[in-house]
């Protein structure tokens, strides 16, 4: 059966907590609070926020988010522009490089295309695998000098990309 996605429900919070903790080392209580908050937001504000779970044969194998960003009034001059953003993707290690990231990206871009003409994405500049994947979808580098609330990048810094959808 091919990889499929579906909107997350609060029943997915435990799964999301576990995979988020395994991938990022986030303490379980913080990961659980984050999972519940972002899933609830995607349910309550479904026009502006999307949280997808990827499955294969009914087993969850990853997740990804997308949403609308509006810069805060006090944002620095190099703040990323207002728009629709692809946000974090996590695919279980056993399922990496088998198409789950590609399916999650394609489905989020379809969702954004129903709302806008362009999509934005940012990530660690040394994440060559993700940059290559997003380049396949038409993303092009815009800048490495930007600010996004709450973002933290490794020593390589971040890169902001944009694509027409």
Please provide a written account of the structure:
A hairpin with a 2-residue loop joins strand 2 and strand 3 (59-69). The chain is of the alpha+beta class and 165 residues long. The model has no long low-confidence stretch (mean pLDDT 93). It contains four helices and seven strands. It has helices at 13-24, 28-44, 100-113, 128-136; strands at 4-7, 49-56, 59-69, 83-91, 118-124, 140-143, 158-164. It is globular. The longest helix has 17 residues, at 28-44.
Strand percent estimate:
25-35%
- How many individual helices? 4
The shape, in one word, is globular
Order of helices and strands: EHHEEEHEHEE
Distance between the termini: 28 Å
Q: In total, how many beta strands? A: 7
Alpha-carbon Rg, integer? 15 Å
Question: What is the SS-derived class?
Answer: alpha+beta
Q: How much helix, percentage-wise, in residues?
A: 25-40%
Low-confidence regions: none
Strand ordering within the main sheet? 1-2-3-4-5-7-6
The profile of the biggest β sheet is: 7 strands, mixed
What's the rounded overall pLDDT mean? 93
Give a short synopsis of this structure.
The protein has 165 residues and is of the alpha+beta class.
